């Protein structure tokens, strides 16, 4: 490329240099900046560097600052798109999410590192190591998520195959839940709950709300020529209420359940139901409350059992009796 063409890219290359080689803890001197520009066959003088830095600062969104260390002045880029703390959170999430395959997590981390300097990037790549963590082996999961987001935005029905874990041919593998069957679902929301990513929608064939693990969905397609039965409900869908009432995405009849519990498990109750629950002091270190719209199922009973002797169901009576039956069924296993 002729030198004149390289000169046209001077501001772009200068921003690239600041992006890669500087951060809050690492700066470049003017001679170092000139040297790096020369590696792109761009020749500048010292006063030109100062003028170009001023031009970059006028662009908005970026801020190149300077600080003195001894006799040298160092320039560095601030106000990057994502701060290092935000990047660390995203890297942690990418590694921790079970629904993202391990190799996909590594690719995401490499892409996220592009938002940082080379010094911060090295730290990000070595920040989290969860080798051996249970991860999905469904390598189309990101494509599934893209299609689901598009369906929610466009209010379009999606069709897909749904899989389950089976043990066949001496190995654990995913197999179609119903062979050659395509679910036809009107989308409502995507939610992350209890370390899994779920797709919530309405089964158009029976007009019933259903929940699907995203990492168990494959062969998904957007249905362009069919309309949802109630597209407006997607915009007004109560995601938080759905998650709180269904306990790990298992559908069940909703009930208002009155309970009493010891103060030592107050944190457990609040972690699950939030701070909006109405409390009653029962004395002797016991409290009472009513859990609203709980999906009463074995999933709920399993969670309640974890609390142990520090809580009890008061009403409704039929829920109390069902919990007793659940406990007796568990005892039969021993």
Automatic annotation (TrEMBL):
- InterPro entries from the UniProt entry: CBASS_pafABC_assoc_protein, WYL_dom
Q: Has UniProt tagged this entry with the keyword DNA-binding?
A: yes
The Gene Ontology terms for molecular function here are:
DNA binding
Task: Write the record's keywords in alphabetical order, separated by commas.
Answer: DNA-binding
Describe the location of the WYL domain by residue ranges.
143-221
Sorted alphabetically, which Pfam families does this protein's record hold?
Answer: WYL
User: Is DNA-binding found in the keyword set?
Assistant: yes
Output the PANTHER family linked to this UniProt entry. Answer: PROTEIN PAFC (PTHR34580:SF1), PTHR34580
Q: What is the protein's given name?
A: Predicted DNA-binding transcriptional regulator YafY, contains an HTH and WYL domains
Q: What is the lineage of its organism?
A: Bacteria, Bacillati, Bacillota, Clostridia, Lachnospirales
């Amino acid at each position: 490329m002729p030198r004149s063409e390289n000169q046209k890219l001077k501001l772009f290359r200068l921003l690239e240099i600041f992006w890669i080689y500087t951060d809050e803890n690492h700066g470049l001197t003017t001679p170092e900046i000139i040297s790096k520009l020369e590696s792109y066959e761009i020749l500048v003088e010292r006063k030109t560097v100062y003028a170009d830095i001023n031009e970059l600062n006028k662009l908005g969104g970026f801020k190149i600052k300077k600080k003195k260390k001894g006799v040298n002045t160092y320039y560095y880029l601030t106000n990057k798109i994502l701060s290092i703390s935000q990047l660390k959170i995203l890297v942690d999430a990418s590694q921790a999410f079970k629904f993202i395959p391990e190799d996909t997590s590594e690719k995401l981390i490499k892409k996220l590192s592009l938002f940082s300097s080379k010094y911060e990037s090295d730290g990000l790549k070595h920040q989290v190591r969860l080798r051996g963590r249970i991860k999905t082996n469904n390598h189309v999961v990101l494509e599934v998520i893209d299609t689901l987001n598009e369906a929610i935005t466009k209010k379009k029905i999606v069709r897909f195959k749904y899989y389950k874990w089976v043990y066949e041919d001496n190995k654990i593998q995913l197999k179609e839940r119903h062979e050659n069957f395509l679910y036809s679902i009107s989308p409502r929301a995507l939610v992350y709950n209890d370390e899994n990513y779920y797709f919530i929608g309405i089964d158009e064939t029976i007009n019933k709300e259903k929940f699907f693990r995203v990492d168990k969905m494959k062969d998904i397609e957007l249905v362009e020529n069919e309309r949802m039965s109630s597209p407006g409900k997607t915009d007004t869908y109560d995601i938080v209420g759905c998650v709180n009432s269904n306990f790990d995405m298992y559908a069940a009849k909703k009930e208002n359940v009155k309970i009493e519990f010891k103060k030592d498990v107050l944190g457990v109750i609040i972690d699950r139901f939030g701070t909006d629950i109405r409390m009653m002091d029962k004395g002797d270190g016991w409290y009472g409350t009513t859990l609203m719209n709980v999906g009463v199922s074995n999933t709920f009973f399993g969670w309640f059992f974890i609390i142990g002797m520090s809580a009890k169901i008061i009403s409704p009576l039929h829920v109390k009796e069902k919990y007793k039956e659940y406990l007796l069924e568990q005892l039969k296993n021993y």
